[in-house]
Design goal:
The chain has 555 residues and is mainly α. The chain is 76% helix and 1% strand. It is built from 25 helices and two strands.
Length: 555
């Protein structure tokens, strides 16, 4: 067996460097599909039908950029503080309720930020229970009698985004703190360092790459959002894309604003990587001692519990509690026919997109690995650009080229058969599925690539030496060993599809609703009680993914 494996390796080394095969060609086509919408946006921006770039730069664009940057900065600061602080407390200290909080702090990942926005406005607005209670308690009769923070504002949007997105930072920071050596902490304590010095001088510097990666993800999600900023009346680059395209009817101008959003995202990714370019973090040895949690007293433990409870309550308890209350007030809305249609559309489009995304990711990663060329492997990081690209930007890059292709296909079918089939791509949910595949391909590709890395190369080589082809090796060796990772990727991509709003709004066919668009439409009309069942269904689907993540990261 060992001799056969050596012969197989020798044959692979002698194989022609540029031999084409179905796996490499297929991987190249998949990579082209994922990258094409971003290239299309840049092309449309550079070749607009009507160039309104001077008008944009002189009027609304500076405001869009300024608001987006302020929103990103505020959310980055709050999520870094909440996520890192909570991760530090549950990892380094032991107190009553720690084990429950360790998983509960992930729950806000299941709640889209726009659901939190609807809940916060419902609670804090003039007619909400907070202001109504204040008027009743102090005898105030109108808004002129007292001051209350503006509910629909930039800083309220910062709070909602931070409550919904801090789990990205928490998850990565918690993993980084767990991996640190207990010997480091013992040396620091022996040198007289207290709790604050341990955090700022030892723990945080070692975890900085993970925290920076989490904050970068948070800012990408902030730029990509539309439902939250629309509900709060905050004008960002994403709202500018919608306004310029749908209200102004100028796709070229929308693409130019989308190009600015893309530049911000790519600049953000580049800065994050440059900031830790020269940083090096190494483990002390294979058998390093894990961190021993310090037991807190009753008072300190209660304070730690309350500090961790605040982001959990804001990101999960508040939106879920409000939606449950609204749904209980009008249970008949659970039987609304539009809800079941939206649920069916969500399951079909999201399930189809998740299956295609993970299947294509498997094909791409396996095909590039079979090529055996390091230069080809450089394609993998490029295919993650879709995840960094806001849904509204992808919609521009997909809708216009697909609409042109749709018309050519319809003309060809009409010429051949005499029957006009209509719009077969943009007139159906096909364009929506394509957008989901491109948007979340990076999520599936990352999970699949890491799963391939965990399979010993000797196993597929043994299968090939026994006569298995490339496809047989994939199905007989790789897939059985990667089943858990593949199923997890399927679930996470499906949940992301369920929560995606901007691309769904722009690419859905006429009179086609998903749970997210149904929520958006009803909340825009201030019919929150009708939107509540859809919001709870989205949360329920999201909790399934969070449960998988929590199980994979249990301590």
């Amino acid at each position: 067996m060992a001799e056969q494996i050596r012969q197989l390796r020798a044959r692979r080394l002698r194989a022609p460097a540029l031999r084409p095969d179905v796996w490499t060609l297929g991987a190249g086509l998949i990579a082209l599909l994922v990258l094409a919408p971003v290239a299309a946006v840049l092309w449309i921006a550079a070749n607009p039908t009507e160039n309104i770039w001077p008008h944009l730069t002189a009027t609304v664009l500076p405001r869009y950029i300024g608001t987006t940057l302020m929103l990103m900065a505020g959310v980055a600061a709050l999520t870094a503080a909440a996520g890192t602080g909570a991760a530090w407390l549950v990892t380094m200290y032991d107190f009553l309720g720690r084990r429950w909080l360790n998983h509960a702090l992930l729950f806000p990942m299941a709640i889209p930020a726009y659901v939190g926005a609807y809940a916060l406005v419902d609670v804090l607005d003039y007619a909400g229970p907070v202001q109504a209670g204040l008027r009743a308690a102090f005898g105030w009769t109108s808004a002129r009698d007292y001051w209350f923070p503006q509910t629909r504002s930039l800083w309220m949007a910062v709070l909602v985004f931070s409550a919904a997105l801090y789990p990205y930072v928490y998850l990565l920071a918690r993993a980084a703190f767990r991996e640190q050596s207990g010997c480091t902490w013992e040396v620091a304590r022996a040198l007289g360092r207290g709790p604050w010095a341990l955090f700022f001088r030892v723990g945080l510097p070692l975890a900085r790459p993970a925290v920076a990666a989490g904050v970068a993800l948070v800012m990408m999600e902030t730029v990509a959002d539309y439902g939250t900023v629309y509900h709060f009346g905050v004008q960002t680059l994403t709202t500018g894309i919608f306004s310029t395209w749908l209200n102004g009817g100028n796709a070229g101008g929308a693409a130019q604003i989308a190009g600015v959003a893309l530049f911000l995202i790519f600049l953000l990714v580049a800065l994050e990587r440059v900031s830790r370019r020269n940083a090096r973090f190494h483990r002390m040895g294979r058998a390093q001692r894990p961190v021993t949690r310090m037991q807190l007293g009753a008072g300190q433990g209660a304070a730690a519990f309350l500090l961790c409870l605040i982001p959990f309550a804001a990101g999960f308890l508040l939106p879920v509690g409000v939606m449950l209350h609204l749904a209980a007030q009008a249970p008949a809305h659970w039987l609304a026919p539009g809800l079941f249609r939206a649920l069916a559309n969500t399951l079909i489009s999201g399930g189809t997109a998740a299956a295609l995304t993970v299947g294509m990711a498997l094909f791409l990663v396996y095909g590039l690995r079979l090529s055996g060329r390091a230069g080809v492997r450089a394609v993998l990081p490029l295919t993650t650009l879709g995840y960094a690209t806001p849904g509204a930007v992808l919609a521009i890059g997909l809708l216009l080229p697909l609409a042109g292709l749709d018309h050519k296909l319809a003309d060809a079918v009409l010429a051949l058969s005499g029957h006009d089939p209509g719009l077969m791509i943009t007139g159906t949910a096909a364009a929506l599925v394509v957008a989901y595949v491109v948007r979340f391909f990076g999520v599936a590709q990352g999970a699949v690539d890491s799963a391939f890395d965990r399979v010993s190369p000797n196993l597929p080589m043994a299968a090939r030496s026994l006569g298995r082809g490339a496809g047989g090796t994939l199905t007989a060796v790789y897939l059985p060993m990667m089943r858990g990772s593949v199923l997890t990727a399927l679930l996470i991509v499906f949940v992301d599809c369920v929560k995606e709003l901007p691309a769904t709004l722009l690419l859905r066919p006429f009179n086609y609703n998903t749970l997210s668009t149904r929520m958006f439409e009803l909340s825009s009309l201030e019919r929150l009680s009708e939107a509540a069942p859809a919001a709870l269904l989205v949360a329920l689907v999201g909790l399934a993914a969070v449960a998988v993540v929590a199980r994979a990261n249990r301590d």
